[in-house]
């Protein structure tokens, strides 16, 4: 009887195949970036929308995962997303404003931006960014809205003279946050033709 032939694989080839197997396993599982040898950074948490009063304090928290080798920024933009302002990079605050401070928690890898003595100009969109490359980044954002007392604009109708039986148009413009509701009422609470109050929303 002839003995079965055995094949011996060179050690170098075996190592190469095992190495390829490891790389393929991680690549298919989405666990590791084969180029950098680490997981892809993610933003795991960001504070939800905030509504604050003028003079108050707010804290905006952003937690990241697998971002130790990347830059993390807080950036503020206006509601129309123009004129971005860089507030911090990494654990350092770059904005020269004593009302702002940044706290970095190593255990939770979170970056908390605190704003004291809130002003109306602080309202806007705050973005937490993880910069992957010059042209690539991941981001999450939180809106900060600042309450403003309602103000009736000077261009509202101040006085009007019309002939009896003729239509009259009176205009009222008001600003504030939340958006104010405008209610029309006659002098001395006199009843309007449609009731005591006439409410119109625009």
From TrEMBL:
Top-rank taxon: Eukaryota
Domain (Ig-like): residue spans on this chain: 41-139, 149-202
Alphabetized InterPro entries for the sequence: Ig-like_dom, Ig-like_dom_sf, Ig-like_fold, Ig_sub, Ig_sub2, Ig_V-set
PROSITE patterns membership: IG_LIKE
Gene3D superfamilies: Immunoglobulins (2.60.40.10)
Classification via Pfam families: Ig_3, V-set
Protein name as annotated: Ig-like domain-containing protein
């Amino acid at each position: 009887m002839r003995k079965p032939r055995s094949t011996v694989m060179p050690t170098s080839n075996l190592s190469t195949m095992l190495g390829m197997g490891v790389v393929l396993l991680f690549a298919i599982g989405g666990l590791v970036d084969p180029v950098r040898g680490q997981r892809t950074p993610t933003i795991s948490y960001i504070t939800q929308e905030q509504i604050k009063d003028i003079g108050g304090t707010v804290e905006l928290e952003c937690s990241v995962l697998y971002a130790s080798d990347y830059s993390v920024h807080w950036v503020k933009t206006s509601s129309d997303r123009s004129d971005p302002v860089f507030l911090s990079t990494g654990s350092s605050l770059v904005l020269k404003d004593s009302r702002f401070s940044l706290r970095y928690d190593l255990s939770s890898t979170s970056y908390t931006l605190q704003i004291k003595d809130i002003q109306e100009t602080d309202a806007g969109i705050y973005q937490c960014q993880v910069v992957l490359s010059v042209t690539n980044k991941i981001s999450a954002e939180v809106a900060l809205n600042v309450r403003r007392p309602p103000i009736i604009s000077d261009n509202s109708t101040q006085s009007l003279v019309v002939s009896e039986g003729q239509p009259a148009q009176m205009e009222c413009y008001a600003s504030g946050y939340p958006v104010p509701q405008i209610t029309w009422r006659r002098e001395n609470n006199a009843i309007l033709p449609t009731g005591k109050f006439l409410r119109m929303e625009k």
